[in-house]
Amino acid sequence: GDVSGHGAQAALLMASARAALRLRASLPGSPAQIIADVNRQFVSDVEASGAFMTLFYLAIDSTRKTAQWVRAGHDPAILYDGGSGSFEELTGQGSALGLDDDAVFEERELKHLRPGQILFIGTDGIWETAGPDGRFFGKERLRGLLRATCGQSARHIAKAIVEALESFRQGLKPSDDITMVVIKIL
Known about the structure:
Blueprint: E1 2-3, H1 7-25, H2 31-46, E2 53-61, E3 66-72, E4 77-81, E5 86-90, E6 107-110, E7 118-122, H3 138-149, H4 154-169, E8 180-184
Antiparallel strand pairs: 1-2, 2-3, 3-6, 4-5, 4-7, 7-8
């Protein structure tokens, strides 16, 4: 997830949303129901502040080799299949949390996860990282890194992305937070 704004207020909202999400996810319900319930709570937390949060919720069933997700205003996750060399974006409809307490969220499912596939979820601070010349790091450079490191562990892939971002910035401070989750299917 990614909360609007920066600083202590954004950090407190993220902590509150995380706690609500963890609690609600521990109870029965589909991913779409979980996110709708968390959204209703988040709306009451942010009320007239104008704050909102984008979220990508992903649940993997390792036994069935499936993934279910809900996209709430967040950039789509990226699925890279090293065997075929193909990329797929995990899309879906759903507004950011905190905007409408009656929002409806679309639940999607990916079947037949295969060993070696990589799921990548990240915040826009990654592809919007700017270099000294003002150019953005971009999603194509990110896809190239996923392709180049697909034989490595998820931890190594994430580390390679962080190092590439630092190198790209050439000493500039990040202008936004950089958060990612890298999952390698075994």
